[in-house]
Specification:
CATH architecture of chain B: Beta Barrel
Helix content of chain A: 25-40%
Radius of gyration of chain A: 19 Å
Structural class of chain B: mainly beta
CATH topology of chain B: OB fold (Dihydrolipoamide Acetyltransferase, E2P)
Largest interface: A-B, 40 and 39 residues
Shape of chain A: globular
Helix content of chain B: 10-25%
Number of helices of chain A: 13
Mean pLDDT of chain B: 95
Oligomer: heterodimer
Strand order of the largest sheet of chain A: 3-2-4-7-1-8-11-10-9
Number of domains of chain B: 1
Number of strands of chain A: 11
Low-confidence stretches of chain B: none
CATH topology of chain A: Peroxisomal Thiolase, Chain A, domain 1
Distance between the termini of chain A: 6 Å
Number of strands of chain B: 8
Mean pLDDT of chain A: 95
CATH architecture of chain A: 3-Layer(aba) Sandwich
Shape of chain B: globular
Largest sheet of chain B: 5 strands, antiparallel
Structural class of chain A: alpha/beta
Number of domains of chain A: 1
Radius of gyration of chain B: 15 Å
Chain lengths: 392, 143
């Protein structure tokens, strides 16, 4: 372990899932205060800052505005915006910046008032409609009335066609994640559900039912990264960034080269390789569950099972509480919280598990966790391997 | 959805804003011809139109497309809260793979959502949405 090896020392959440009293910038700020309290650092210790800005009108929480709002005198800033997985990319970028001495201590934040400000329009409304003309690549999609859920539905349909994957297998993912949501007092939906409940919920975009889709929430998060050396003086045991990699295959769904394979097939082997671990070594998975199909594709592409065998894999119960590698132990985006982008919650929950702070949802002997984010429409995938011990 | 029913929705759809590269594509569709870009160096077709070949960064020329393809994947949109599309549900949004190998998003028309299958042969039908814009829709291929 090197002195400048990157570690995560603080995590914080704002309040979720329904907080009409907070706007997006307040979510960033509240999560920041709690992440700093968690690690015992002060704003003046932060010299690197990363946040994507949501692009969700009318918010003004882009990186430059937020750095000013939080009054961070940074010497390294990152405003990458590749959708909900941006935070996994930030870990990759910040790890490199810390190793290369561009900065010592990085704050990463996210905040969104999407539910209270915009309602539940994200997944089931057309991106552009009406009389305005559409520019850029969206012009080749907007006229045909697709919605976000429809993009993922087309991936699910193709996976079913090629591999015989069933709606029951997809539903199993939602059922398992809901069980964990029942253990999270802040989760948006906590009552247990069954496979039949998922299949009987309203069809949104065939073959995806309402309960195959994530919720829409308010919420925010923050985490603090620094060097292993700096972490020695801090109250809590650091979580080590063992591997982090990202890759992109497309942005618009109609440009997806293979509707059953994501860029996780490229970046996950890189992240696992950096960490020197294999999928079978991992104790818990925090995977971006925008839709049930997202989890299935990322599981396969990361190598937890072979391509096409994701359905059979989830049927084994491996992802359940008490299973081989429990999934989304905070209740995930499917049940707990999805404020427009969710990638920061994957990191924070992995840290909570690796510290042994997850209460009833704690995975026993949790030493290795993976956070895998999907941004855009299965477009930009970031994979992060975190552990309780540094690389040997 | 019949072609007539689709035509009646054109005024409610978000239309493209043609630019220096795409203008020829949209104008050709308005004039009843589906065209694609083909690389003058490596011969690759591509869609959507761009100012370079994404295979070799070379220059492209316009060629007429066969207008035939097969459905690569699709969904049935049951809920779209946007006013322009709310009344159309359910409708089929799909990805058609043209015989030239490129793919585009479309609506599968002139058949019921329940009759749509991945792999079904399709043919293009072009509808004029504005003086400078035609939109390609795809229907089950005749014969």
């Amino acid at each position: 372990m090197g002195a400048r090896d990157p570690v995560i020392v603080g995590v914080g959440w704002s309040d979720y899932p329904v907080t009409p009293e907070l706007d997006a910038m307040q979510h960033h700020a509240l999560a920041t205060r709690r992440a700093l309290e968690d690690c015992g650092l002060e704003l003046s210790d932060i010299d690197g800052f990363a946040t994507p800005g949501t692009g969700f009108s009318p918010n003004t929480d882009d990186a430059a505005n937020m750095a000013e709002y939080l009054r961070i005198d940074h010497r390294w800033i990152d405003g990458t915006m590749v959708g909900g997985s941006t935070f996994e990319f930030f870990v990759q970028h910040a790890a490199s910046a810390i190793r290369d001495r561009m900065c010592d201590t990085v704050l990463v934040t996210y905040g969104s008032d999407m539910l209270s400000r915009m309602g539940r329009m994200l997944g089931t409304s057309t991106f552009a409609s009406g009389t305005s003309r559409v520019n850029g690549p969206s012009a080749y999609e907007a006229p045909w009335g697709n919605v976000l859920a429809g993009a993922y539905a087309m991936a699910a349909n193709r996976h079913m066609y090629e591999y015989g994957t069933t709606s029951e297998q997809l539903a199993e993912i939602a059922v398992g994640v809901r069980e964990f949501a029942g253990l999270n007092p802040s989760a948006q939906y906590r009552d247990p559900i069954t496979v039949d409940d998922v299949l009987e919920s309203r069809m949104i975009a065939d073959p995806l039912h309402k309960l195959d889709c994530c919720v829409i929430s308010d919420g925010g998060g923050a985490f603090v990264m620094t060097t292993a050396e700096r972490a020695r003086d801090l109250p809590k045991k650091p979580v080590h960034v063992l591997g982090a990699a990202g890759a992109q295959s497309h942005w618009s769904i109609s440009q997806m080269p293979d509707f059953t394979t994501t860029a996780a097939a490229r970046c996950a082997p890189e992240a696992f390789g950096q960490a020197g671990v294999r999928p079978e070594d991992i104790d818990t998975l925090q995977i971006y569950d925008s839709f049930t199909i997202t989890v299935l594709l990322l599981l396969e592409d990361m190598g937890f099972c072979k391509k096409g065998e994701g359905g059979a894999f989830v049927e084994t119960g491996a992802l359940r509480r008490g299973g081989r590698v429990p999934l989304n132990t905070d209740g995930g985006g499917l049940s707990a919280c999805h404020p427009g982008m969710r990638g920061i919650f994957l990191i924070n929950e992995a840290v909570r598990q690796l510290r042994g702070e997850a209460g009833e949802a704690q995975v026993p002997d949790c030493e290795l966790a993976v956070a895998c984010g999907s941004g855009g429409m299965l477009s930009c995938i970031g994979t992060v391997v975190l552990g309780t011990e540094g690389r040997s | 959805m019949s072609i007539d029913a689709v035509a009646a929705t054109l005024g409610r759809r978000a239309l493209p804003n043609p630019d220096h590269v795409s203008g020829h594509y949209w104008q050709s569709a308005a004039d009843g011809r589906l065209v694609l870009q083909r690389c003058t160096a490596c011969g690759a077709h591509q869609f959507y139109p761009r100012s370079l070949c994404t295979s070799c960064a070379g220059e492209t020329e316009w060629v007429e497309a066969s207008g035939r393809g097969a459905l690569h994947t699709y969904t049935v949109i049951r809920q779209n809260k946007s006013p322009a599309f709310a009344a159309l549900s359910p409708y089929v949004v799909g990805i058609v793979e043209l015989d030239e190998g490129v793919r585009m998003m479309t609506n599968v028309v002139e058949c019921e959502p329940g009759e749509v299958r991945i792999g079904m042969p399709l043919e293009v039908v072009l509808l004029r949405a504005a003086d400078d814009v035609g939109l390609p829709f795809w229907r089950p291929a005749a014969g």
